[in-house]
Amino acid sequence: MKDFTGRIAFQARPLSRIGRVDPARPSLELVRSLTDEHVLRALMRHRRLTRAELAAETGISKPTAGESVRRLTEAGLVADTGERTAGGRGRGRVGTYYALADAGVALAVSIAPEGIIAEWVDAYGDTVSRAEQHISRPARPDQVTAALRAAVTGAQQASAVPRLAVVSAADPVDRETGRLIQLPDSPFLLGELDPATVLAPYVAGCVTTDNDVNWAARAERDGAPSGTSRDFAYLYLGAGVGCAIVSDAEVRRGSSGLAGEVAHLITTGPQGQATQLIDVFGELGLRQSGSTAIDTGRLLAAVTGKQAQAVRHALGQAISGALAAIVALCDPELIIIGGSWGTHPVILETITTAFTRMPRQVPIRAASLTAEPSLTGARADALTRLRQAIVSAAHPARAVPRRQR
Prior knowledge:
By secondary structure, the chain is an alpha/beta fold. The protein is built from 12 helices and 15 strands.
């Protein structure tokens, strides 16, 4: 027919007349894999549950929960614990408790100037063993390699082999290879190191390595209350200085993994001259003897001693200058200061006061997590990867490899 303009007009017909359109239904295999994942993750959270409790926890029916338990038991992922609920008059049927079978462990490692820590973490999030090894500073790759091997074997549980490893390293990490690389004025490692190669004989699966400041920022992000900023800059002030940029809740590593290496940012020196941030500590006499590493004890004594005002002024203008550059380039909503001396009240006040003179103002606060933040971040990631490996084992055909950091 034609409309009033003379153009051809088409009369719309209901879809029911053209042909019924049904939404795509998920396959039975997909439904089963999702159900099994819910059951496995419920057992990871609660350690042991009956089929009735699994149904209540996951929101699936009791028969469906029971069928999932049967599949997972046959696959060797879930086991009958041998424990039973108290049945009898008025108490319902006797229930069987199920738990994860031997799900293995993950290895979390911290390589830092303070030493090397190796932890074995199980699927429940428990640290089942831990070992530490001291290393001298500055360290050579062969020293770190020997200490790393000693820490891992020291934490070893019987003949068990970790399914994977996550490493936090106090040095720049190449994004593609995972190797630790040496930059000028590196305060820790004199040379390069490949943690994946060192750990290969001790780990069954992949080894993921990243810079310690990035792991600390992830731990800060994960431990923050709901509604906290998803866009922040995490400035670490310890034996070295570093920064992690978190945007949309993800750490941005840059093309080669060296984003956040702020030691060589140009800022204002003690005499008002342009200088690299790391050189300010040398000019103030705050480095460790024979090293480019910052002497934390000497620095804290200087900002509270007789010459405190001059030292605080120099540090304040240098660090706030670096923060101004970070804000200009990355536009964070918040700046978080962490590290062995960064969270000290005197230092935090010094930085905050100096930063008020900068063109753009961003809130500054101390890191909320101060006890082993880098290892905490690496441990959490190791747990996430271990749990995903367990879930993927239930339905290997559906598993999608997770992109490594």
